[in-house]
Design goal:
The chain is of the alpha/beta class and 306 residues long. The protein is 37% helix and 16% strand. It is globular, with a radius of gyration of 21 Å.
Length: 306
């Protein structure tokens, strides 16, 4: 009897048919979410019944969901984060959990660089003015000569640092577990947290969740930053106190911020009222190329483990 697979994503194979073709050739019996939206808990349980594998997005897989799909053997996540999966319960049930961490490195790093140029040259600001038929000019800044600070030197943080070094910029980074050999090879200065905060013209967050070393960029941390510095957060919304950031931007302590992640999503908070911000709806990994590759890898991961 063929094993059953449920594809929970509504956008599956939107940018290429290879994931579906791989499933069709595998001989597995599979169904795809046709609701056109993210599934809620009860729907995951409903559509997951009798399935051995699920190709997952960010819909919930808490202990109750896992308990109520007893046939489940593997959850293969399209993406990196596993916060939506109760990993303790999954381990208890012997489930195999997969993700696609390598695919997101380049698109997120490119997004960070794009945000730097956008903030410095005020591209979004001028576009919004032009679209409202206002001929308004505001001086920007050059990237040349700036110091880029990176908090979190994992795979994405390192890629951003490498790209900045190729632009001949000074890069100062902080990580709980720094790779000294990599830093020396790439000309990146490994320094303490306060040093990064106080010297960076542009601070880019690429931290991972770490219960042993929690971090929030709040009022105290922002007060240590250079006047006129800029912030980029493509990591997690929890790493930035949005009210403290709003206050710093309003008071012009910081010159700009670019965010793709928020403490609560969809975000509609006070930062939306500032013209010194770039706000994107959690799309750093959303390129056609990377999305397709993630789905191909997630499909392959699931097939290997069933």
């Amino acid at each position: 009897m063929s094993k059953k697979i449920f594809v929970a994503l509504t956008t599956f194979a939107q940018y290429g048919q290879e994931p579906v073709e791989r499933l069709e050739k595998s001989g597995f019996d599979f169904t795809v979410n046709k609701l056109g939206r993210r599934l809620v808990k009860e729907e995951v349980i409903q559509y997951g019944q009798g399935c051995q594998g699920i190709i997952a997005g960010v819909e919930p897989y808490d202990a109750d969901v896992i308990d109520q799909i007893p046939s489940l053997e593997c959850i293969s996540r399209v993406g990196v984060g596993l916060d939506n999966i109760d990993l303790r319960k999954a381990k208890e049930k012997g489930l195999i959990i997969c993700n696609t961490p390598d695919v997101v490195i380049q698109p997120v790093a490119e997004m960070a660089v794009a945000m730097m140029f956008d903030m410095l040259r005020r591209l979004s600001f001028h576009t919004l003015k032009m679209c409202s038929k206002q001929w308004v000019k505001k001086a920007g800044n050059m990237l040349c000569g700036k110091t880029v600070g990176i908090l979190g030197l994992g795979r994405i943080g390192r890629r951003v640092a490498e790209m900045m070094r190729k632009l001949d910029l000074e890069v100062r980074g902080y990580d709980v577990h720094p790779d000294q050999d990599w830093a020396k090879k790439n000309g990146v200065s490994l320094v303490g947290l306060d040093d990064v905060l106080s010297t960076a013209d542009i601070l880019s967050l690429h931290l991972a969740s770490d219960k042993d070393h929690p971090f929030v960029l709040g009022s105290a941390e922002i007060s240590k930053m250079k006047d006129g510095a800029m912030l980029i957060n493509l990591a997690r919304g929890q790493f930035v106190d949005e009210q403290a950031l709003y206050d710093a931007l309003k008071e012009e302590k910081l010159a700009g911020a670019a965010l793709d992640v928020y403490s609560r999503e969809p975000y509609d908070g006070p930062l939306c009222g500032l013209d010194s911000v770039i706000l994107t709806p959690h799309v750093a990994t959303l390129t056609k190329e990377s999305r397709l590759q993630m789905e191909v890898e997630a499909t392959g991961n699931l097939m290997k483990n069933l």
